[in-house]
Specification:
The chain is of the alpha/beta class and about 800 residues long. The structure holds protoporphyrin IX containing FE.
């Protein structure tokens, strides 16, 4: 075909190939309509019905023993595809598209491919596929006349626009997601029959969404908050959602209190403030009356609540779940995600400043890491706890305010997750994804954690409103790779076109299909959990061991490094100083006394309290002896960042800079997966010291201030340094990097700029500051040293020196 400039040349919307791709059923009909054919179908239907003269599995519905082992459902085979078809001409049987995961191929993307739209070289059309001739003007009676009601093009466009927004999530509204895969590193068939863990090397596609909890959809990323860590595994046996957080415990013990907790932390209802912040009266009023939240408060006031990156935080399933093996034997399990890039957090001053300069800091970081190939990666670990072990613990593992210390029950690594693909469309994927704790697959079951019970109900319930009806499981990002066959029908936005006349079970007209899978293949609930761990009476209450509220709050605090402890005290001080009611401040400090006298004293001092209030009376009078008093794995220092991969490094330049070190560093850092950005007082370019070479500038210091970077490299070249030394933005840039504990690289003999910014290369005790790297003029020679300093991310020695 001759080339032409016409936009749709050769690719018109009427292209028969395109049509065929979109068509629902282009196969030839099996039987042509006709009286004889109808008769044949009737005979086949009767034969099928006759094959099931009675409900053979009925007796198995009764009795305790039968209840433990449901049988496979009775079913019969139809004579031909037409027997169970809706019409004589229907030829397609019900094989749903979708393939099993195989290595190197993310099959979960296929369901998205079916609905992908590529408008390149296409005409604009209406939603009915009619080409639009003019997208600039509404239809009017004369050029100056009134617009006409018959303008269906305008009305369709406005109507669709008017309905573009859907309700945001009631919690976790602000989030960012990515596709990836889970790889089994350790088959655990003895523990569970869950599909992803059956074979070493088995790959299961995943979609992960990370979120803050309290803020609205457009709120800042770096608020002090818990982070949601939700992963949807598209397994061969249906979707499994591990909907966790970046902290292993929770505020409350019973789902009954969840709406109260959320109402308390969300903006106060009378004036709608504050946004994305727990530092206000109602939150602290509630939690100070709920001593079981003290452990979680320690986590939320710690640096865990302000991660540097979504890729540098741990994830936890929080609740105890159950693994069930093929023989039906079960154990308790706790899930842990361990980040390959280490656990790295921000400091509060940094988080506050970032939220102003880049409210999308975490979303951008996740996006950039994936686009640049520095794929976020976690190991999946499990703690396995038998029923007998659980009984011997000083706390109840059904209590979500408690963790199982890794020193007591080690974490075994069973797989890894790599996020390697950004969503193509934020709304279609990240916004419409619907996670739910009720989405489990054979081999995974619930414990009796009463918080988990509420969650099993809550997610689907809210999603019916958020996603507009009961069929959101058909939205491509939510639809499983495993086939879906049931007798659920209709409802808003239904897409499945189910063949045949049958929508009930038992049936004989559909040959008994779809039939129940039975215990061998279907999901079964572990019966033992009803027998062995629960009282028989219907009660509203909690087990006695839930009443101990402070031992693990103390455990967490005592396990932190001095710098981390100082940050916790500062966070309590900041948050409580925003509380306007002194009685609430006092109540909280009185509660803290039960976890740590020294922390309570420090917070009280910070709040200007003259006297410590009495310790809060405990719900449990007798002392419970914890198994351990310190758990080193609870400190962020247990898994420090050890790589520059994914880091952002600022290379400061100005006119007169030496060009070679800039390009050398850009290349060296890129080769290690770090992103070097050239930063100057203004965007555009700067002229190097040879008067000729132009160096392109990526961003200005106003646009990307120092606190958005993990490290800064000061320039080489006297003229450039002279320019920068006079610029207050430059001095702020360097001061912030220093204050936030990060790496500064300067060339030897060229560190005047450091002095001007008040930065000393040594610590107060005269030892060298490991985060200030002075390198010779050839950065290649010193790159190892530079890389090592940046890979540490932060240099707590600097703050420690200030504290002591
Ligand atoms: C009874 C307690 C809880 C209830 C009733 C509850 C309820 C909810 C609801 C209604 C949503 C919004 C879901 C949506 O619109 O798609 C949500 C989101 C979420 N919840 Fe919970 N939640 C509870 C406790 C927890 C706990 C303990 C965790 C962590 C283990 C958690 C983690 C999450 C996460 C990660 C999301 C966001 C999922 C996403 O990215 O779409 N929730 N929760």
């Amino acid at each position: 075909m001759a080339k032409t400039n016409k936009p749709d040349a050769g690719k018109s919307n009427d292209d028969p190939k395109t049509k065929a791709r979109r068509g629902s059923d282009s196969k030839t009909a099996q039987l042509k309509p006709g009286i004889a054919e109808m008769k044949t179908k009737q005979l086949q239907v009767n034969a099928l019905a006759a094959a099931m003269p009675f409900n053979a599995t009925k007796p198995s519905e009764y009795g305790f023993v039968n209840a433990l082992v449901p049988p496979q459902g009775d079913h019969a085979q139809a004579a031909s595809a037409v027997t169970t078809a809706s019409t004589l001409s229907q030829s397609n049987t019900s094989a749903k598209t979708g393939t099993q995961a195989r290595s190197g191929h993310n099959a979960a993307i296929d369901s998205l491919d079916r609905v992908r739209v590529d408008s390149s070289e296409r005409h604009l059309t209406t939603n009915q596929g009619v080409k639009i001739s003019d997208n600039q003007n509404s239809l009017k009676l004369g050029l100056r006349g009134p617009a006409l009601l018959e303008d269906f093009v305008l009305r369709e466009k406005l109507t669709h626009f008017d309905h573009e927004r859907i309700p945001e999530r009631i919690v976790h509204a602000r989030g960012s997601g990515a596709h990836g895969y889970f790889e089994c590193l350790n088959a655990i068939t003895g523990l569970t029959r869950a599909a992803p863990f059956q074979e070493v090397g088995k790959v299961t596609p995943v979609f992960a969404r990370f979120s803050t909890v309290a803020g609205e959809r457009g709120s800042k990323d770096t608020a002090r908050d818990v982070r949601g860590f939700a992963v949807k595994f598209y397994t061969d046996e249906g979707n499994w959602d591990l909907v966790g957080n970046n902290m292993p415990v929770f505020f409350i013990q019973d789902a009954m209190k969840f709406p109260d907790l959320v109402h308390a932390v969300k903006p106060e209802p009378h004036h709608g403030m504050p946004q994305a912040a727990s530092a206000h009266d109602t939150f602290w009023d509630f939690v100070s009356l709920m001593p079981e939240s003290t452990h979680m408060l320690m986590w939320v006031m710690s640096d865990r609540a302000i991660p540097r990156s979504l890729a540098t935080m741990e994830g936890f399933g929080v609740h105890s779940f159950r693994f069930v093996n093929a023989a039906g034997a079960s154990v308790f399990v706790k899930f842990h995600w361990k980040p390959k890039f280490g656990t790295v957090s921000l400091v509060w001053d940094e988080a506050v400043k970032i939220s102003g300069a880049d409210p999308d800091f975490h979303r951008r970081d996740l996006w950039e890491r994936i686009e640049t190939g520095a794929y976020p990666e976690w190991e999946l670990g499990i703690q396995v706890i038998t029923e007998e072990q659980a009984d011997t613990l000083s706390f109840d593992i059904l209590d979500s305010t408690k963790l199982v210390p890794e020193e007591l029950i080690p974490v075994q690594i069973i797989g890894r997750m790599v996020l390697n693909r950004n969503p193509d469309n934020f709304f279609a994927e990240t916004e419409q994804v619907a996670f739910c704790t009720a989405h489990v697959v054979p081999g995974i079951d619930f414990s009796n954690d009463p918080l988990l019970a509420g969650r099993i109900h809550s997610y689907v319930d809210t999603q019916i409103t958020r996603l507009g009806g009961p069929n959101f499981h058909e939205i491509p990002i939510n639809s499983p790779l495993a086939q879906v066959h049931n007798n659920q029908r209709d409802g808003m936005h239904r897409q499945a076109t189910v063949r045949g006349q049958v929508a009930y079970e038992p049936n004989s007209l559909g040959g008994g299909c779809p039939f129940q899978a039975g215990a061998d293949q279907g999901f079964t609930t572990v019966a033992a959990r009803l027998n062995s761990r629960e009282e028989q009476a219907k009660v509203r209450g909690k087990p006695g061991r839930f009443a101990e509220h402070y031992a693990q709050a103390a455990l967490f605090y005592e396990s932190q490094s001095p710098v981390e402890q100082a940050h916790i005290a500062a966070a309590f001080r900041f948050e409580l100083s925003k509380v306007t009611v002194p009685a609430i401040r006092e109540r909280m400090v009185s509660s803290l006394r039960n976890a740590s006298e020294s922390l309570a004293q420090e917070v009280a001092d910070g709040l200007g309290m003259k006297h410590l209030p009495e310790p809060m009376p405990r719900a449990l009078a007798q002392h419970v002896e914890p198994e351990i008093l310190v758990s080193p794995s609870l400190s962020l220092t247990a898994r420090p960042g050890r790589t520059v991969r994914g880091s952002r490094i600022a290379l400061l330049v100005a006119d007169g800079v030496k060009a070679l070190p800039v390009s050398q560093l850009q290349q060296l850092l890129a080769s290690k997966g770090a992103m070097a950005r050239v930063i100057a007082p203004r965007v555009g370019s700067v002229t190097a010291d040879d008067g000729k070479t132009e160096i392109a500038v990526d961003a200005s210091m106003e646009g990307e201030p120092g606190f958005l970077f993990d490290a800064v490299v000061l320039p080489q070249g006297d003229a450039a340094i002279d320019i920068l030394m006079d610029d207050p933005n430059v001095l702020d840039f360097v001061k912030n990097i220093y204050r936030h504990g990060k790496t500064i690289v300067a060339f030897s003999g060229q560190h005047r700029l450091l002095e001007q910014a008040g930065v000393s290369p040594s610590l107060p005790d005269a030892s060298a500051d490991p985060g200030i790297v002075i390198v010779p003029n050839d950065p290649k020679k010193a790159f190892g040293k530079i890389e090592q300093a940046i890979a540490r991310h932060t240099h707590p020695e600097r703050e420690l020196a200030r504290l002591s």
